[in-house]
């Protein structure tokens, strides 16, 4: 618990960091990593170089200070012995002028008195005289003094083993610092230039690296949209190239499967279309046969019986003929009904509206339910396939209402010709059901309606809610009729041949 | 009732020989009906009509080459005095309407020919229109409006909320509840609620009534 709490600020920081860093593109991520490490490397390099250079220069300056001090001590010994302070001063001044790093030189007598110094009119600084005495027993010593002009290495060497005093040489680090600054600046500029080139190169690299990923991502989206004609050029022989090749292979496989599926679907449709067409043809033929030959023969029979009844005087024969007349009339009616049920002549002769009106009228008589119908199909006849499909769909829909829609009191039928499509809606206010759970494979009636609509390039929608009735929507485009007729004629061909 | 002195000249057009024979047998006992010719096809019928100029044509609609309804106009053109009595297996009022529109003056289903033919002939001769009694009901049903809608006034529509109007308009246009819901960013259930509330306010009970209402109000227009 405690550990977790201690971790949590780190975690929060990481989360916040990742919210920004994770949001940028891979390109930016790679770019950021390269840039960050380059900056870090440069900083470390500059720091290290400065340190090394400074240490090197410092020891150089110490050595320089020591050799100058020893040299001055040696050369001033004789002059001090003869007390030629002027010559000593000249020596000091010349020495100081020859070495720009030397800030000052002075000599203190064994009594602690400043004998000669190189300070100008500003005078000898206070406190300098006693700030760095030579430790006893040493032949030289260096210490760092902090002055108002920065750090100064104060080198002290005895003159004539200390009997004539001590030489102090002050080496200033001003020039060293300046050199250091210059060096740092130059290194900075050089590194910045290198960094800029590096950034350019890395951005180019990241673009090149992320391009195949971007292309792949675009291609994936295209495939998701259903476009299977994409091809991703493999970029190189690396992992991304392999990925591109795998992707292409996958798309190819998908395309093959899709074609296979389409082909199967088309075959299934053709078969279904053929079955439906054959069924309709058969029904039409039988219906016409019943209507024409059978009914006509029965009508003739009726007329013959009538003639018999009128011309025969024997009561028993007349009675018998009367009975046969009744039976024949009954058979004729039955044949009629059968023919209409198979396929109403009306549909072929006068069209969908007439056929539907009759079907609805009979359905109303049969079920006792009212159908409120609005039918607007215009003057022009619809293509026969569309008429048949719509007639069968209405038949199925109303049959379903009679069979399943318990409690229905009103049935609506709206059939309209629109600009480019036919819209059919059949609605009841019966018990309804859950439309989401409809299994089309188990409700062949619904499946049949959908198949008939889809075969004509149309759509079938079922909406139903328990307690709120059921509505079916069928839309059949009229633009595609040419296609359809063409496919039908080719299908009908082997049938006839 | 004045009997015509000259017998009435009748042409029978039917592709079934057995039926033509039956009709002849039916008319045989009546000397004032004289069958002057028979035709099996629409083409023959037209030829015979032109040649014979019969008083009456007994016409079957179901001829093998051209549908009987389609030659009615031509027959009237070729022989204006010929009265056409349709004798057919078709018992649907739609055929009846078409036949009457095209100029037929009588219509008898074949199954009633044996009992009704003579009556029909008499009526037609008198200049009346004869329609078999079994078919008049269907004719009238088609003429009467099926279900008068409650008269919904202009005001009722104006009193609907904009959302109700929008939903009803889309329902009348034939969109599914799902489509309307997606279009208006509502749930299908809400769409149903708007719809039933709006219909109730308009006094409409069915979708068909709503469509008729919308057509009357000009909320939607039909093609053609």
How would you explain this protein's 3D organization?
The complex is a heterodimer of chains A (497) and B (224). Chain A is built from eleven helices and ten strands. With 497 residues, chain A is an alpha+beta fold. In chain A, the strands form two sheets. Chain A has a five-stranded antiparallel β-sheet with strand order 2-1-5-4-3. Chain A has a five-stranded mixed β-sheet with strand order 6-7-8-10-9, with helices on one face. Chain B has 224 residues and is of the alpha/beta class. Chain B folds into two domains: 8-143, Rossmann fold (3-Layer(aba) Sandwich), CATH 3.40.50; 154-217, Winged helix-like DNA-binding domain superfamily/Winged helix DNA-binding domain (Arc Repressor Mutant, subunit A, Orthogonal Bundle). Helix content of chain B is 52%, strand content 13%. Chain B contains eleven helices and six strands. In chain B, strands 2-1-3-4-5-6 form a six-stranded parallel β-sheet, with helices on both faces. The longest helix of chain B has 15 residues, at 188-202. The mean pLDDT of chain B is 85. At the A-B interface, α5, α6, α7, α8 and β6 of A face α1, α4, α5, α6 and α10 of B.
Q: Classify the secondary structure makeup of chain A into a structural class.
A: alpha+beta
- The side-by-side strand order for the widest beta sheet of chain A comes to 2-1-5-4-3
> How confident overall, as mean pLDDT of chain B?
85
CATH class label of one domain in chain A: Alpha Beta
CATH architecture field of one domain in chain A: 2-Layer Sandwich
For the CA atoms, what is the radius of gyration of chain B? 27 Å
Identify the overall geometry of chain B.
Answer: elongated
Q: Could you tell me the strand content of chain B as a percent range?
A: 5-15%
- CATH class (first level) name of the largest domain in chain B: Alpha Beta
How does the major sheet of chain A shape up? 5 strands, antiparallel
